[in-house]
What we know:
Layout: H1 2-6, H2 11-18, H3 29-53, E1 57-60, E2 63-64, E3 72-73, E4 76-79, H4 81-94, H5 115-130, E5 135-142, H6 143-151, E6 164-170
Antiparallel strand pairs: 1-4, 2-3, 5-6
Amino acid sequence: MLLDQRRCLTARQISRLLVRGDVEANPDPAARARAIAAADRQTNRRTLRPLKDGEYITVVRPFLTGETTPLARKEVNVLTAKGAALVKRLYADEEMGRQLRWTRSLLEIDNTNHAHSALLNDWFIVMRRAMRDPWQLRGWRDDRDLAHLTQQGATAFSGMVPDAVFVLSLRSDGA
């Protein structure tokens, strides 16, 4: 579901969302580097490899900027049609009204510039990781979602669409 919501993510971004936890806060640089490398390996072995072997995701290489590198071709993970079908079934099982965002065109982003999308994903990751109970990050919509909604007349934006909008909510139910 994460790849459907974010469209494409690098292995490092997935690791930061799902595995790394607080290892990046380790004050010892050498220990931090080892812990980050271990988390990234775990992401590749336990999460990405089985999904690739099952043909639920694939890798394409658009142009992105990295944390420490200039614009270059980098591997990103995207859903395949098989993976999108599975996510669509999961959304239906949730009965929360979520719609599949995946389109076949995501498989064709190879060799194109997606630096802006990658930076928005990085910002999403920072915001999501910063949210601690009782705060929650909800309703994230990036510029592509907003442009589509604006074309449908579902927003009041005119002329300019922001890079992203989101809601920070404070849980008041105590749960």
